[in-house]
TrEMBL record:
The keyword Hydrolase applies. It comes from Azospirillum himalayense. This is PaaI family thioesterase. GO terms for molecular function: hydrolase activity. It holds the Pfam family 4HBT. Residues 51-126 form the Thioesterase domain. The keyword Hydrolase applies. Keywords: Hydrolase.
Amino acid sequence: MSAPVVSAEELEALIREGVPLVGNYGITIEQLGAGTVRMKLPYNDSFVRPGGTVTGPAMFGLADVALYAAVLSLIGRVELAVTTSMTINFLRRPAPVAITADCRILKMGKRLAYGEVLLFSEGDPEPVAHATGTYSIPPHDPVTLAVSGYHDPEMS
């Protein structure tokens, strides 16, 4: 696995400052690689909906910001990269505990990135949700991708 072109600390700061709604959730990066990220959404009573389960909007926000971080891990701080589409399937009722997101980029092109995110309740190996999404990448310096060691034959 090659190294990401931005640090976990830089991404966490960017999420807090640039995406304050989700940044205020207290999300932290546990692992970061080139095109991969593991993030944690800490448990918070305000994320629990009637029935004692973590609310869908909190999980969707975690999935979206995980995909954002995975994209930026490859292209650097291109802040205007934006979600083009995202689909989430809720598979099981999440327990009222911290939620972990494991994200990976499946396809990285010049203008679009496509990835998937699996969400887990802390301590449970079975996913509670699966999301896929596409990010639009604005024009930027493609040298960043070469430095990251990421190679897409379509970009050659």
